Here is the input.
Amino acid sequence: MLYLLALPPTDSVTEGYLPAAARLGLDVTLLTDAPEAHRRAYEGRGGDAWPRIDIVPCEVRDFREVIASITALDRRPEAVFTNSDHLQVQAALAADWFRLPGKSWRAALLTKNKAQMRRALAEAGLETVWSAELARPGEEEDVRPPFPCVVKPREGVASEDAELVEDRAELLRHCRDVRSRRPGLPLVVEEYLPGPLHTLETLGDGRVLHVLGSFHESGVTPPHFVMRRADLLPEPPRTHTEQVVARLDALGVGFGACHTEFVAQEDRIRVIEINYRSAGDQADLGLAEALGIPLFEHVLRTHLGRPLPADLGARGPGRLRLETVNAARGGTLKSAPGPTEWERDGVRLVYRPLWAVGEERPLRNSDRDHLGVVRATGTDTERIEHVVAAFLAGQRWEIA
Here is the structure.
């Protein structure tokens, strides 16, 4: 029995981890605080490609409730797993409670909490970034950061409420604005790290760490940091890989999937954030396809206590492009293309909407503004670019 912790449904779980659980012969108990959303997301799914799944309401942000729910269900867990940024510590503590393989809860906390991550890397002598934690309202009055600097939630995701500020007045304004909408939210302020933005995707079993690849993200323009395009590099520079892995080692990261964002400053890298999970927004699904590996099964096997193979069996020079369609304003989505999949000219293209037609949302200046994501895989970069451009040009998204 696989116990899977989740908040709202994501493509990584719906299209990746749940089908992988079925291929591994696992029944799934999904613990979530959004049971109806998951039931709607899984309507019409079944057959051999879908596991036997039981959706159980649970306050998954509280590790004590997770442990209590698993105990009360009286179904012996073989693994406790989550791909949610917000639930890594809870899943790690629950796995440890039931004496199952899992991530170190300390490593999960160090990567989730950006202030703790900065302290740990500085104490290890690996990287020093000017950073201050603003745990309570008013503390921003006393900090003297180098400008420009970045203000963001201490435990934020998807670049939500992250902003580059140029001076003290902008710093105070942004802190007031965020706290007016999200009272009590701890923030961090840190020096701005310019340079090309990259990721490193890794997979480990606690013994061996595999480097899966690196994305180059482009079109990310301050003062906000909305992801627009990412291209899988044929091979990340060795010096960058070695530096990222050294930082992961110092934080105790090496079990399951991890998605690390960093900027390259010539031969030096500087970490932006570490997400101790597989990459989202279709990147993990595209990575599995481009490399030709059963990525999601590999991740689940680590949580079942099975060692990874020495060679993951990547089939060769696959190329991958991710491109997002972003809302230019808030409002109600009146028309948009639905889910799309096709293959032509040696390119496989998949489009997944992230807003539903009829849904109303404010503009957040974050990755929450993605209307949908295109992923395209093949072996020819120019052909992929042409196919993606032609697809986007032929579609229409209308917000009223």
About this structure: The mean pLDDT is 95. Residues 260 and 274 are 4 Å apart (CA to CA). The chain has four domains: 2-100, 104-124+194-314, 130-191, 317-400. The longest strand covers residues 255-265.
